[in-house]
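Protein chain data
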Amino acid sequence: MPNLTAGIPALANQGMTAKGNDAQPGNRARPEGMTAPDSYLTNPDKVAAMLDSLSVGKVVELGTSYGGRPIRAVGYGAFEPIDRRSTHSAAYMAGQPEAFFGKREKRVLLISSAVHGAEIESIAGVMNLISILERGSDLDGVEWPGIAGGARRLRIVIVPIANPDGRARVPSDDQLGWSADETQRYRHGADAAGTPLEWRPACFVPHPQILAERSVLGGYFNDAGVNPSQGMFLARDISPEAHLLADLAYAETADCYLELHSCGAGPLFLNGWGFVPAEMTAHQHYIDGAWRMKMRQRGLPAPDGIRKPLARKAMGLIGYVYHKAGSLPLLFEGGAGRRYSGENVHRQIVDTYLTLFETLIEIGVRDGYRPAL
């Protein structure tokens, strides 16, 4: 398989200073009349324009969605090819995992955002991360030295909009203004009679969606009605998004694959997926705990306990990526807004994602993402 992002240049040194944070915790929705700042960047056209303007990161087109829209990735840090002599599974069966993983200098962190196109706040998170990796500060000009400095010791690859079909179907750039009805319609769609659909089972059965049975096709899906987080077992021609992400993880031999979602109960991690080894689950919990500690220190909302997936006997995209690429699988549910309060909810949401990225970068540099071979 060809390397999809070969030749991406290393991140240049940046000048950095300390970062401040004035976010406050809470459980209310945003105050009436609050509008999203320009730094809360979720609009697909503006995302494309920013990617076109980058000078440090290398932007590549991985392929196109079912609807023909480009799926782009940006990488920081030099690509290191691996002399791979086996598949992931076969290498472990032989007791020689190094035959798959090979050797290289830097660990690789792969991040995908908006796998479900209406979960748009994660786009704002990764675009602020890209700003830091480009110039040392986020889109508000806040400097994050832990991210900028640590990133130089990793390779980081980001897919800002993994499901551009679903994102294009959402006529809004700010989820904080959505009513409950709009949230359901934008995310999950509506049946033939116009009744908004709940997340479960409608987002999973039927799969793909039967388009004639939907008056509104929610942003969860690509234009073929495929939910990409379950699309890897469908043919590539109707589910290119899932296959392109898995291909990218394989080509990069990503040490960690972080898949960004969002839900009303977030922010939180979902840990303990089926068909993932116990040592990987233990590392998920370790990262989860480190992130929650940082969140509390910064006055941001964090869950009190561990959250597990509802269907642990099923394999989603992150589990599939583990078996194909050996990546530590992480699924993060960002907060759609209800667990935040105050006059700066958009800023708090962005800070939540940047705290997540900072935590992951620190752990990647210090401890790595996978158990020792």
Observations:
- The first strand starts at residue 58 and ends at 64.
- DSSP finds eleven helices and nine strands in the chain.
- The chain has a mean pLDDT of 90.
